[in-house]
Design goal:
Length: 677
């Protein structure tokens, strides 16, 4: 607990120091003096808070920290302890742990010895777990058996969902009951390593490595265990094995990244991290690349989701032609009036929807913010943005030019040619006026009683100059608008596709309506020039009836994947990537687990075709999907190379679904089993 307090305090001090020196990186550990100053500053800020602000925070479930208790907790921590904790937290590779390395190497397991070893290890693990975790774990285990579901898959689901102690409990029970199941043994060993018991996981993994040589998953998990023990040569040996089998292995490449970074070989570290993130995105990897001095580019990331060419169906919208002569003017002027009225009627309907959606979005956003703040104080993970948002921002963001918070769907820069064409209309108007004056002078002495009154000639001449005006003015404006609307149609579709992955569903529904309003407003407000026939002409053509206004296409997510593991289901859609438990209607509280946390990793999920051992990427043909997660939650899901997957996604279900966990380089959970024997 003292180590936990030290780490938390260091992070708080670092954030304060970073805020005070924005251009300078904090490279030294905090001192007791700095911590006391930070505490005093925090106390001062809390004292200056208004009663209204404090009440608002309490209503959101946010409790003000007790600074006196916090100061008492850290008062006994020396500068030397702070320095060591800072170094441990900042170290790229964990310090070499000779005692635990010797313990791992001293144990060699035969198949016959596995049962006793698992039982002993599980008992040691149980001694490290809290009573609440063991009680909840036992309830879950019994409920799973009553539903005849897979306890092994549920354990992995708990791990993915940030419930490591419950996952340890369940997988330990599973392996005790069936110590010969290689997939479960691999997953249990991965859990042990990630929670800080690498010396206990290695004997299991070494046994599996003999039974299933050249398996990328086992090789990666052995590499992760040696990395956690600080043995760089062995970690690199097994990471290289996994990478030789699968060049883009998401976790083994991160082992290589850290090793190369520790050696100061930054180009090699960047290359390894780029391979890791290419097929399986995570924000941790993106942050690591940024720290190494590399800004992730769109081309660095694989994207396998279909992109519609015209999401709203804007390309099918038609509006009346521009009149290019006075013969067309009368009918087209009426068509434009009817078209604009119809557009405005639809806009009015959409604005009513917009108001309702804005209210719903504000309420939903307030609820999300309240949940994030209140659950964050309890140490519980809450997804702060849609699962694919971070990846989409990198992959799709560069392809759209309007992702800075402006959702008006008006592209000002591209309107420049339209503005120029409209300005040119003024010149054409002046030319028309000048020619009309000349024409008036030409015929002024020929009109009147007793004069020749050449009405047909006047009609023809006036229509000629008006035709010239319409052709010149409308021709330029129509061409400019056509280019702009073609751009707007493509860009709106791209933006909606981008927003579909970066917005919550309520926000996206609002964005769709705003896009529709913007489109109708802009096509309605085209500046069309009208000039009627000369008044000296007798005939007027009949009005032409315009067609009905087109309807927008519905924009919905065509890429939805599900991984139904029995009790736990992972659903991947355009806007989200989430996991959900279903204990058969029984309410089980999973939020009381005080050791809740998310640690980086990935899992291959699918149906094995005659493969007894853990599924590595070398048997891609028998798998269906790869799911990636880090400390922010799920970050990516896709079909594994070589697997047939429809454009609509991957669906995995059934009692024979198997999951193989690849541990990641995150060490944040190592304190759970710290000191275990």
């Amino acid at each position: 607990m003292k180590n936990y307090i030290i780490t938390c305090c260091m992070l708080m001090v670092a954030s304060v120091l970073c805020a005070q020196t924005k251009t300078k990186t904090v490279e030294k550990p905090p001192t007791q003096k700095e911590m006391k100053e930070m505490m005093n500053e925090m106390q001062k800020e809390m004292d200056e808070m208004s009663l209204e602000d404090k009440k608002a925070m309490e209503e959101m479930g946010i409790k003000m920290p007790d600074m006196k208790n916090l100061q008492n907790s850290i008062s006994g921590i020396s500068d030397e302890q702070l320095k060591k904790a800072w170094e441990d937290e900042s170290r790229i590779i964990p310090e070499k742990d000779t005692d635990r390395i010797n313990a791992a190497m001293a144990t060699t397991l035969s198949d016959g010895e596995m049962s006793a070893y698992i039982s002993k290890t599980h008992q040691s693990v149980l001694m490290q777990l809290s009573p609440a975790a063991k009680t909840t774990g036992a309830i879950i285990y019994q409920q799973i058996k009553s539903l005849n579901k897979s306890a092994a898959n549920t354990a992995v689901g708990l791990w993915m969902d940030g419930k490591p102690t419950l996952a340890l409990y369940l997988m330990g029970e599973v392996c005790k009951s069936d110590p010969a199941n290689a997939i479960n043994l691999n997953n249990y060993a991965a859990f042990l390593s990630m929670c800080g018991a690498e010396q206990l996981s290695l004997p299991v993994l070494n046994n599996l490595n003999k039974r299933y040589p050249n398996n990328s998953t086992i090789s990666n998990n052995i590499a992760q265990a040696w990395l956690g023990l600080g043995d760089i040569p062995k970690a690199e040996e097994f990471a290289d094995r996994a990478i030789r089998i699968y060049a883009y292995h998401p976790q083994a490449n991160m082992v290589k990244c850290l090793i190369e970074e520790s050696r100061g070989n930054i180009p090699a570290a960047i290359a390894a991290a780029k391979k890791s993130i290419s097929k399986a995105y995570s924000t941790e990897k993106a942050d690591k690349l940024k720290k190494l001095g590399y800004d992730l580019k769109s081309d660095d990331i694989n994207w396998d989701r279909p992109m519609p060419q015209d999401a709203l169906g804007l390309g099918k919208f038609n509006w009346p032609e521009y009149p290019m002569n006075v013969e067309q003017n009368a009918s087209l002027e009426k068509e434009w009036k009817d078209f604009r009225n119809e557009c405005q009627q639809k806009i009015n309907e959409l604005k009513i929807q917009q108001e309702s959606l804005e209210e719903a979005s504000i309420a939903a956003n307030e609820q999300r913010t309240k949940l994030i703040l209140s659950e964050g104080q309890k140490g519980h993970y809450v997804q702060v943005m849609p699962g694919y948002a971070a990846k989409a921002m990198v992959k799709l963001g560069p392809g759209v030019s309007d992702v800075n918070g402006n959702i008006s769907f008006v592209f000002s820069n591209e309107l420049t040619p339209v503005v120029r064409a409209l300005l040119a209309v003024g010149d054409h108007e002046n030319m028309l006026s000048e020619k009309q004056e000349l024409l008036d002078k030409k015929y002024e002495d020929q009109i009147g009683e007793g004069r020749s009154n050449p009405l047909e000639a006047i009609c023809k001449d006036e229509n000629a100059i008006r035709n010239e005006f319409l052709s010149m003015a409308n021709g330029g404006v129509q061409s400019a608008y056509k280019t702009y609307f073609n751009y707007m149609r493509r860009q709106t579709s791209d933006l909606l596709y981008y927003y579909q992955y970066t917005m919550w569903p309520d926000q996206f529904e609002l964005a769709k309506v705003m896009a529709q309003i913007s489109w109708l407003t802009q096509i309605k407000d085209q500046k069309v020039n009208f000039k009627a026939k000369s008044s000296w002409c007798a005939s007027v053509p009949a009005n032409k009836k315009s067609g009905p206004l087109q309807n927008f296409d519905d924009v919905h997510c065509d890429y939805v994947s599900t991984m139904n593991l029995g009790i736990y289901k992972i659903t991947s859609s355009c806007s989200n990537l989430t996991g959900e438990f279903d204990f058969g209607g029984v309410k089980i509280n999973l939020t009381d687990n005080v050791e809740t946390g998310l640690y980086s990793g990935s899992a291959m999920v699918g149906v094995s075709k005659g493969i007894d051992g853990p599924m590595g990427t070398e048997v891609e043909g028998s798998l269906a999907g790869l799911v990636e997660w880090d400390n922010t939650g799920f970050t990516d899901l896709g079909a594994v190379a070589g697997v047939s997957a429809s454009a609509a996604g991957v669906d995995i279900a059934g009692a024979d679904v198997k999951i193989t966990v690849n541990g990641g380089v995150s060490r944040s959970g190592s304190n759970i089993l710290q000191g275990i024997k």
